[in-house]
Write a structure and sequence with these properties.
142 residues; mainly alpha; Arc Repressor Mutant, subunit A; 3-stranded antiparallel beta sheet; 3 strands; 53% helix; elongated
């Protein structure tokens, strides 16, 4: 397929746009992001990506002329973490057996990641507001 750009991995364009906005450090319009990425991407493709990131609460936007200028709501690592967490939640919400998926996920963690997860769970109160006991698991209301 001569002349066609290689397809991006899932979420690749979002990552590029987020990195572009982080590097700019100031709000940018879709046209500015398009010019900065310089990848022969259609304006509408960039605008759609920015709109989706805004809907995911990763960006804020302010009016600028007849367009909007977009900016990250947090620093780059925090924004990336939020998008990854959203993706994980979306996968868990697909209707598969959540207990099995989470069990396999925990089984695949290295010791450091498992300890981080344990520490995070220990910091969250139970749904009734009481602090978690030793070894208690947090259950989120659905």
């Amino acid at each position: 397929m001569a002349g066609r750009a290689r397809p991006r991995p899932s979420g690749g364009l979002e990552s590029e746009v987020v990195a572009c906005l982080a590097a700019a450090g100031e709000p940018m319009t879709a046209a500015q992001v398009q010019a900065e990425l310089g990848d022969d991407l259609a304006y509408t493709t960039i605008l759609t990506t920015l709109t989706r990131l805004y809907a995911k609460q990763a960006l804020t936007r302010v009016p600028r002329g007849r367009a909007h200028a977009y900016q990250l709501v947090a620093d780059l690592p925090e924004t990336q973490a939020g998008l990854t967490a959203r993706q994980m939640q979306k996968l868990l919400d697909t209707g598969v057996d959540r207990a099995t998926v989470l069990s396999r996920f925990v089984d695949s963690l290295d010791e450091d990641s498992e300890q981080i997860l344990r520490d995070l769970l220990a910091r969250h109160p139970e749904p009734d507001g009481t602090p978690p006991g030793p070894g208690a698991r947090k259950r989120r209301p659905r």
